[in-house]
Every structure is written in structure tokens, then in C-alpha cells.
Design a protein that fits this description.
By secondary structure, this protein is mainly β. It has three helices and 30 strands. The chain has helices spanning 2-15, 200-203, 453-456, and strands spanning 33-36, 39-40, 46-47, 61-64, 70-77, 85-93, 101-104, 108-111, 117-124, 132-141, 147-148, 159-164, 170-171, 177-179, 187-193, 209-212, 217-221, 230-237, 248-254, 261-262, 267-272, 297-306, 309-324, 331-335, 346-355, 392-396, 404-419, 422-438, 441-452, 458-467. The strands form seven sheets. Strands 22-23-25-26-27-28-29-30 form an eight-stranded antiparallel β-barrel. A five-stranded mixed β-sheet has the order 7-9-5-1-11, with no helix packed on it. The chain has a five-stranded mixed β-sheet with strand order 4-12-10-6-8, with no helix packed on it. The radius of gyration is 33 Å and the shape is elongated.
Length: 488
């Protein structure tokens, strides 16, 4: 008999799970009744009305760790509903703190016509106290014929308890790349998703992003409003970047901030792709490397502060090709090592070069960066960012020119420090052009941007010239400001 009773109770609960019109097409007369109808999916998230699932059983309590608005449906089961019915409920916090949440409606539900479900929406305005709970209770109903609670003694569902668990707030990008046309004034939208919601006052002034910018743009966002699931941002391009032979790229990275962790897809890359295909036979990287010489140097000058005045200052760095696999789209065969075995073939990226030491654990002076700092460590263990193994990418004019084109400083983060306990992440980016200015002599002319809020107060930049020979014409003086060294 006990087994029969339990099965009967469960059968009754399943029947009244749904709150569609089918509830009222019962084969026998049923007294009308009112109850909480909170359903939970297999992933432990609520099934929000008007979605229905007849296989789910209404719950009497729920552990909530999300700060999004929690919706608790209350369902009325009745064969006929000729007049408007109201029901009063109470919402009480276990610790007496009713200020951390709001309830809408405040204490009264309404049912009329075909509307036989109403919802109690609980929103959270601040982080709640530990071990707090919210207790909802159906108190009265305007029609005395309507029973409060299920028509059984085991699962009444006339009360509902919300235990407020440990808050987990995190965020992610729903996509990892967006394409732009490159037209000044162009605007694209993207979202940051908050699966468990967010508190606006915690996000409004927080530095949620880190930037590697290959072009200039502004960034705004929609008002937060009542939507706590995502924030929509608007990126507006501030410069014209329609060169078909060049790829432009900026990257936005989500960073951890107090109470919020970046997870999943944390990088969003905004790309203006190349329209002109590149012919690897143009091979611009070969103009700036000599793989037979492990100490091959490129030479450069940058517009920098010297004794209080701006001037061109020299630097050099050991320069190497970028080794890639045969299936890389930019791969060009450098050496078959004199064998018929293709497995030992060496391929280089036809369009990229980098800077590194020949041997040992020291660093080279990529982009003359050591001049930017007064107390930098030259050890690769502390300042690996001085060795930029993939630094510049070339885009031949018309995709196949062997004498000129555009160049991109490959956006990336560099770690540079003065000691193991004092290191900084510096984002670099930039762009420019390259050209054969005399027989065999190539010049790269570009702007380099460095970004770090603590060191530079944001982004600083200056002009660079680089050459594939130690003999080159001295650049003409510029009439622009120049950066000066900073202390790490």
C-alpha cells in the first residue's frame, strides 16, 4: 500500500507540472488550487515560464548562485475562471535583510481569463550575506473556492525557499573574431556575456579589458538597464584602413577583476583582412634576414628623447626568419638539406621576421626597447619581451611586389621587468610601409605603439626606421613629440 501511495503522489505531481491550458482538460472534476511551479532543468538552471516540461517536478527550494533576476512562477489550476483572482504572498529574508533584493510584484499575484500563471521576479541589487535565504509563502486567495497548495498532503508547494549560495560571477566573449571593412566611422557591435549576471556598479568603472590596438577606434556600451545577462559594446573606427594589401588587427582581451573572472573565450580579435592574395615568391622577409649568418643584424633608428630633446637614436638587433611547417599558408621552402627526404625540409614564413639571441639566455634590443627603460633587466628569464621572435609582417603591394608594400607590427604582449618580482606586461602594435630605396637597400618606416597604464598612462608611440644594411641615409628630423625613458 505504501508503494501505491508514493506512485500516486508522484503521478499527481507530474500531472500538475505544466501550466498550459491542458491543465484544465481533466477527465474528472478537480477542485481549483494554487501552488508554486518552479521547475529546474538538468543543468540546475530554472525553466522559465512560459516554457513547459511535463517530465519535471515542481521544487520547493532552490540554491541560487546567480545575480540575474530569478523568476518563480505560481500556477492556478482551475476548470473555469470567470472572474479575476488575486493571491497574496509574503517574501521574507532569513536574516532580516530585505535590502539586498527586490520583489516584483511586491505581494500580490493576478490571474484572469487565460492567464493562469503569474510570476514573482526577484532581482538582486547587491551581493548578499552568507547563509541568507528568501522564503516565499502563498498567504491568501480572493476566491475562497481555490485551495492554496497541491491537493495532497505530501507536496503542497505552498511555500518556496531560495537559498542564496556562493555568488559566481564571470564573463566571456560569445565570439572570438569580428571582421571590419576598414571605413572611418564604421561601427560594429559585440557582446560580453555574463552567464550568472552582474552588478552594474561593480562593472561601470572597472578595467575589464586589455587592448592590443593595430588601429584607432572608440568604444562605448549600451545602458545596463535591467538586462544582467550581457553588455553590448559599440566599436567605432576612427581611421581609414582600406589598403587591400594589408591586414589590420586589434585585440581586446577580458581580464580578471575583483569578483569577476574571465573564462572561456577571453580574446576578441577585430580584423580588416587582406583582400589581395600574397604571393610567397615576393618573399619580403628574405630582404631582412640571412639564415646562413646567426649574427645577422638589421639596423634601426627611432625618434626618442635624448637629454631633453627629440632626436633619431640608433639600435640594432639580431634578426631571424620565422620557421613554419610546410602546410602554413605563408610557407616557402628554404632548404631541403640536400636530401630527397621531405621530412627534413626547412620552411620559412615568407612575410615575417623576428629578433632573438643566437645562443644563451640574454636578450637582444628588439625595436630599441631597452632605451625606453632606465633599469631594465637584460635576462630572458625576467625580460623575455626583449626577444620578439615574430615581430614584423610584410604585405607586398598588389600581393606580389618585390620592392614595396605595407608592414604590420604583430600585436602581442611583452613581459619586461627590472627583477623577478617587478615585471610588466606591455602591449605592442603598429603599422607602416617598406620600400627598396636604392639598389638592395630596404627601409621600413613605421609607428610603434606601446600600451601599459602604469608605465605610460595608456598608449605611447613614436616613429621608427629600419634597414637591412649598416649603411643608410640618416632620416630627416621630425617635428613631432617623442617619448622618454621610464623607470620600471
Amino acid at each position: 500500500m505504501t508503494r501505491i501511495k508514493i506512485l500516486s503522489i508522484l503521478f499527481t505531481a507530474v500531472i500538475f507540472t505544466s501550466c498550459s491550458k491542458d491543465d484544465y482538460k481533466l477527465g474528472v472534476e478537480t477542485d481549483p488550487f494554487l501552488r508554486f511551479n518552479f521547475l529546474v532543468k538538468s543543468d540546475n538552471t530554472p525553466l522559465e515560464y512560459p516554457a513547459i516540461n511535463g517530465s519535471l517536478v515542481p521544487q520547493s527550494n532552490y540554491v541560487n548562485s546567480s545575480v540575474k533576476t530569478l523568476k518563480v512562477p505560481v500556477a492556478l489550476t482551475a476548470r473555469n475562471l470567470k472572474n479575476t483572482v488575486t493571491a497574496n504572498f509574503s517574501a521574507v529574508s532569513s536574516n532580516g535583510d530585505n535590502q539586498s533584493f527586490k520583489v516584483n510584484p511586491v505581494n500580490q499575484l493576478t490571474f484572469q481569463g487565460a492567464k493562469l500563471t503569474d510570476t514573482i521576479a526577484i532581482s538582486f541589487d547587491k551581493r548578499w550575506s552568507a547563509n541568507q535565504s528568501i522564503n516565499l509563502k502563498l498567504e491568501t486567495v480572493s476566491d475562497p473556492e481555490i485551495h492554496i497548495g497541491n491537493l495532497n498532503t505530501e507536496y503542497l508547494n505552498d511555500t518556496f525557499k531560495i537559498d542564496l549560495g556562493t555568488i559566481t560571477t564571470n564573463y566571456t566573449f560569445p565570439v572570438n573574431q569580428l571582421l571590419i571593412k576598414g571605413e572611418v566611422g564604421e561601427t560594429i557591435d559585440f557582446k560580453v556575456n555574463f552567464p550568472n549576471g552582474f552588478f552594474p556598479e561593480e562593472i561601470e568603472n572597472a578595467n575589464t579589458f586589455k587592448f592590443q590596438n593595430g588601429f584607432d577606434y572608440s568604444l562605448t556600451h549600451d545602458d545596463f538597464g535591467d538586462n544582467r545577462s550581457s553588455i553590448t559594446y559599440h566599436l567605432t573606427l576612427l581611421e581609414d584602413i582600406q589598403n587591400d594589401d594589408a591586414r589590420y588587427e586589434s585585440k581586446i582581451t577580458l581580464v580578471n577583476i575583483p569578483n569577476y573572472n574571465a573564462f572561456g573565450s577571453i580574446n576578441l580579435t577585430i580584423v580588416k583582412p587582406i583582400k589581395s592574395p600574397r604571393d610567397v615568391q615576393a618573399y619580403p622577409a628574405s630582404k631582412f634576414t640571412d639564415p646562413t649568418n646567426s649574427f645577422y643584424l638589421t639596423y634601426g633608428e627611432h625618434w626618442f628623447n635624448r637629454n631633453g630633446s627629440c632626436a633619431w637614436q640608433t639600435f640594432n638587433a639580431i634578426t631571424f626568419p620565422v620557421i613554419v611547417t610546410k602546410d602554413n599558408e605563408n610557407a616557402i621552402l628554404y632548404s631541403d638539406k640536400g636530401t630527397a627526404d621531405p621530412n627534413d625540409d626547412v620552411y620559412h614564413d615568407a612575410f615575417k621576421i623576428g629578433f632573438n639571441v643566437a645562443t644563451g639566455n640574454n636578450t637582444v634590443n628588439s625595436f630599441g626597447l631597452k632605451r625606453w627603460f632606465s633599469n631594465e633587466s637584460g635576462s630572458a628569464a625576467i625580460s623575455p619581451g626583449f626577444n620578439i621572435t615574430s615581430a614584423l609582417e610584410f604585405f607586398p603591394a598588389n600581393g606580389n611586389s618585390k620592392t614595396e608594400g605595407t608592414v604590420l607590427v604583430i600585436p602581442q604582449d611583452l613581459t619586461i621587468g627590472s627583477s623577478a618580482s617587478n615585471t610588466h606586461i606591455i602591449a605592442i602594435s603598429g603599422e607602416g610601409t617598406y620600400k627598396e630605396i636604392s639598389n638592395g637597400l630596404f627601409e621600413i618606416s613605421f609607428e610603434l605603439k606601446l600600451t601599459n597604464d602604469k608605465l605610460f598612462g595608456g598608449t605611447v608611440s613614436t616613429q621608427y626606421r629600419m634597414y637591412n644594411s649598416r649603411t643608410y641615409p640618416k632620416p630627416a628630423a621630425l617635428s613631432i613629440p617623442c617619448p622618454k625613458e621610464v623607470t620600471l
